[in-house]
C-alpha cells in the first residue's frame, strides 16, 4: 500500500481553500475515461428491455453530462420500489458497472415483484476524472440534503422525491480504494484546513448500516451472499474498519441522514452502502462488479421476504 503524503500540494496547511486553491485543484484534473462510451452506451443497450429516462443534465464549462436512470418497464403502483444507486463517487468503478451488471443479468428476475429504479452513475464528471468530488471540489456523498450544493445530489433527490415513501430497499454501491488514503483524504483535509491523520484501508468487502435504524439481519444476509464471490474485510487491531467500530462481521454504522449520505434519501426500512476493495490482490475487477450485483440481489431478496 502506498504511503500518504505528509502534506497536500495545494493550499496552506491549516487554512481552508478559497477560490484560487479550488481553481488550482480543478486545473490538475484530467479526463481519463469516457462516460459516453463506457456508461451511456451500456445504458443504451438496455433500452429494449427497460425504460430509460434523463433525470437531469450537468453543465460544467463546455461539457454536458446527461444523467440517466433505468426503470422497470412493467412499473406498477401497487408494487414496492427498490432503488439502486452507483457512481455517487465517480471514481468507484464497480459501483457503476456493478449496477449495470445487475440490471443486465438479474433485473428480469424481479419483474412483477418490485419496481426497480436504478441510477448507475450519479457523478459522471467524477467518473471521467476518476475522482471523488465534482468540479467544485464538493463531495456529492456528503451533499444529499435540501439546497444541496452538488447538482449531482440535487438531481437524484428530485428523481427520487415522488417515490421516496414507497421505497422498500435502497442500496448505494461504493468502493474503498488505496487512493482514499493517498489522495482523497489528504485532499479533503487540505480543502478544509485540517490536519491529515493517516489511517488504514480494509482489505475486503464491507457494508455501512444506518445507526439511526440498524437492520443487522438484513446486512448479514448481504454479507453471506457476497462472501461467495469475494472476501469480507476483517476488523483491524482496534476492532474497527476505517475508524468506525465493527458492529458485526463486515458491518459498520454511520448516521446516514446526519452526514448527508446517498443511502439516506428515502424512507426505506432497508438501506445500506456497499464498499468493495478493488485494489486487493485477492479480487479482480470482474469479482468486484459481481460482488455489487450479488449484493443488490441479496438485499432485494431479504427485503421482499421481510416486508
From TrEMBL:
Residue ranges of domain Peptidase M14 in the record: 31-307
Q: Which UniProt keywords apply?
A: Hydrolase, Metal-binding, Zinc
Q: Does the keyword Zinc apply?
A: yes
Pfam family membership, one: AstE_AspA_cat
Q: A single Gene Ontology molecular function, please?
A: zinc ion binding
List GO BP terms, alphabetically. Answer: proteolysis
The protein depicted here goes by the name Succinylglutamate desuccinylase / Aspartoacylase family protein
* Source organism per UniProt: Microbulbifer marinus
Amino acid at each position: 500500500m502506498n504511503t500518504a503524503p505528509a502534506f497536500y500540494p495545494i493550499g496552506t496547511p491549516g487554512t481552508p481553500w478559497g477560490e484560487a486553491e479550488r481553481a488550482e485543484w480543478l486545473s490538475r484534473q484530467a479526463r481519463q475515461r469516457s462516460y459516453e462510451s463506457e456508461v451511456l452506451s451500456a445504458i443504451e443497450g438496455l433500452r429494449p428491455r427497460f425504460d430509460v429516462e434523463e433525470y437531469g443534465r450537468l453543465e460544467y464549462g463546455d461539457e454536458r453530462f446527461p444523467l440517466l436512470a433505468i426503470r422497470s418497464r412493467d412499473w406498477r403502483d401497487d408494487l414496492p420500489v427498490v432503488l439502486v444507486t452507483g457512481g455517487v463517487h465517480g471514481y468507484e468503478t464497480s459501483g457503476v458497472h456493478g449496477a449495470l451488471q445487475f440490471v443486465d443479468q438479474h433485473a428480469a428476475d424481479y419483474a412483477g415483484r418490485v419496481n426497480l429504479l436504478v441510477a448507475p452513475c450519479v457523478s459522471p464528471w467524477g467518473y471521467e476524472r476518476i475522482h471523488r468530488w465534482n468540479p467544485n471540489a464538493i463531495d456529492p456523498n456528503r451533499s444529499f440534503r435540501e439546497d444541496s450544493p452538488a447538482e449531482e445530489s440535487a438531481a437524484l433527490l428530485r428523481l427520487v422525491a415522488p417515490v421516496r415513501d414507497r421505497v422498500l430497499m435502497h442500496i448505494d454501491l461504493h468502493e474503498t480504494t488505496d487512493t482514499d488514503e493517498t489522495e482523497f483524504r489528504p485532499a479533503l483535509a487540505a480543502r478544509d484546513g485540517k490536519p491529515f491523520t493517516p489511517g488504514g484501508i480494509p482489505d475486503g468487502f464491507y457494508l455501512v448500516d444506518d445507526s439511526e435504524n440498524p437492520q443487522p439481519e438484513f446486512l448479514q444476509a448481504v454479507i453471506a451472499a457476497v462472501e461467495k464471490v469475494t472476501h469480507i474485510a476483517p476488523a483491524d487491531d482496534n476492532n474497527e474498519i476505517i475508524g468506525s467500530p465493527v458492529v458485526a462481521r463486515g458491518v459498520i454504522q454511520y448516521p446516514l441522514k446526519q452526514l448527508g449520505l446517498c443511502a439516506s434519501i428515502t424512507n426505506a426500512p432497508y438501506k445500506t452502502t456497499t464498499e468493495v476493495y478493488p485494489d486487493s490482490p485477492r479480487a479482480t475487477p470482474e469479482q468486484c462488479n459481481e460482488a455489487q450485483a450479488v449484493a443488490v440481489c441479496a438485499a432485494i431478496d431479504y427485503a421482499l421476504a421481510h416486508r
